[in-house]
Design a protein that fits this description.
The protein has 160 residues and is an all-alpha fold. The chain contains 8 helices and no strands. 64% of the residues lie in helices and 0% in strands.
Amino acid sequence: MKASDLIKKLEADPDYQEMQKRRALELKEREAVLAEDERSLLEELSLIGYAIESVWDFVNNNNRHEFLRKFNGSYAGAYPTLVKHLTIEHHPRIREGIIRALTEKDANEVASESLLSEFYKEQDLNLKWVLANALRTVLTLSQKAKHPEYKEVYNGKGQP
């Protein structure tokens, strides 16, 4: 069957069309939940000069494909706000974005203690790995020697 034939078949299939409508609605609802969850963080960041659409705009902001970048440059001034939001309950997807945005070597002074604290408290295994990844980047060698537990999680040994 050609791709064009499959597309025609799916366009004529009411079950498939209904499934697509449900998926689109679920996606829209999820986007609304995430936007509401992230709203206070974005407002605080805007007040200090970071007009971003999502905390994820800070993540991988040096993408070589310029058209994919929504933010470019240093955001060290945002670290204290991001650290503050580590202790505020957020949707796991937003929390992951906050952690990944703090996964910068120059965030050590501002973020290392909070990242360590959150690492030891985190129950979600995926987020615990994200925190371990952040610690791998943020911590100094002496800090890493004092907290070797992050390596076990990062390397997958801390998972059931």
